[in-house]
């Protein structure tokens, strides 16, 4: 689940509807993130009731090598004070780019109400990777290119409304032929057409599409209406 949706009320709602959650913890929950960081950096002496599990996956492609290690523990989830938390998660990703020789390490935290007997570290890693497929195609673009992570609006339904607007823009740009959303923002951010042209007319790609689309439209011969 996207970090924007890592909210106490949503966790309560999911459990009330007999569901499970896997929430990514980022800067929008600073106290929870700091608590998880502290716990994994200075883990307590493992008690009999605590369960620890770890899985490491390696992938190679696109000129880089990635080593991902996911650790999860039941620990003292009550210490977090997060609704119905059953497992705490730390995921470390080491990425080595062959062309530059650069190695980077990223540590991300998460929390879930799924008990260990139903979700081992390997299962949680599969779920996390499935989430990242969506993240890289949509959420990452919203967070970085459209600046969602820098938006601190938290009032009422405003975050959900803004997320819906960003998703709508991404859909329009992709339908118009854009593959690089940063280029789409630069090209249309200061001279977008009226909403009626963007949303009502089926052939809106002439206005929102990449330059190759717009130039091809300008070269089309004008059709004269008869009658």
What does this structure look like?
The protein has 227 residues and is an alpha+beta fold. The protein folds into two domains: 3-161, no CATH class; 175-218, no CATH class. The chain is 41% helix and 20% strand. A five-stranded antiparallel beta sheet has the order 1-5-4-3-2, with helices on both faces. A hairpin with a 5-residue loop joins strand 4 (87-97) and strand 5 (103-112). The N and C termini lie far apart (57 Å). Residues 198-204 and 216-227 have low confidence and may be disordered.
Topology of this structure?
Layout: H1 8-16, E1 22-25, H2 30-41, E2 52-61, E3 64-73, H3 77-80, E4 87-97, E5 103-112, H4 121-145, H5 158-175, H6 181-188, H7 195-199, H8 205-208, H9 211-218
Antiparallel strand pairs: 1-5, 2-3, 3-4, 4-5
Features:
5-stranded antiparallel sheet, 5 strands, 227 residues, 41% helix, single chain
Which regions contain 5 or more consecutive residues with pLDDT less than 50?
A: 198-204, 216-227
Number of strands: 5
Biggest sheet statistics: 5 strands, antiparallel
Percent helix, as a range, is 40-55%
| Radius of gyration (Å) | 23 Å
Strand order across the largest sheet: 1-5-4-3-2
Number of domains: 2
The termini sit apart by 57 Å
Give me the strand/helix succession: HEHEEHEEHHHHHH
Overall outline: globular
Strand content: 15-25%
Which structural category fits the helices and strands?
A: alpha+beta
Average pLDDT value? 78
Q: Please work out how many helical segments DSSP would assign.
A: 9
Structure summary:
The chain has 227 residues and is an alpha+beta fold. It has two domains: 3-161, no CATH class; 175-218, no CATH class.
């Amino acid at each position: 689940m996207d970090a924007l949706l890592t909210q106490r009320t949503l966790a309560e709602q999911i459990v009330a509807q007999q569901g499970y959650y896997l929430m990514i913890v980022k800067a929008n929950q600073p106290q929870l993130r700091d608590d998880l960081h502290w716990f994994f950096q200075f883990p307590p002496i493992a008690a009999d009731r605590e369960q620890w599990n770890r899985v490491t996956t390696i992938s190679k492609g696109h000129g880089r090598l990635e080593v991902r290690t996911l650790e999860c523990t039941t620990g003292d989830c009550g210490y977090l004070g997060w609704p119905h938390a059953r497992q705490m998660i730390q995921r470390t990703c080491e990425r080595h780019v062959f062309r530059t020789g650069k190695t980077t390490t990223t540590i991300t935290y998460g929390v879930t109400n799924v008990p260990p007997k139903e979700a081992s570290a390997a299962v949680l890693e599969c779920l996390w990777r499935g989430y990242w497929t969506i993240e890289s195609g949509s959420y990452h673009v919203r967070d970085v290119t459209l600046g969602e992570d820098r938006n601190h609006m938290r009032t009422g339904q405003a975050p959900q409304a803004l997320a819906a607007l960003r998703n709508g823009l991404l859909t329009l740009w992709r339908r118009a032929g854009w593959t690089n959303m940063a280029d789409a923002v630069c090209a249309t951010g200061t001279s977008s057409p009226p909403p009626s042209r963007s949303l009502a007319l089926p052939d809106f790609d002439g206005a929102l599409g990449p330059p190759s689309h717009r130039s091809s439209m300008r070269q089309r011969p004008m059709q004269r209406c008869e009658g």
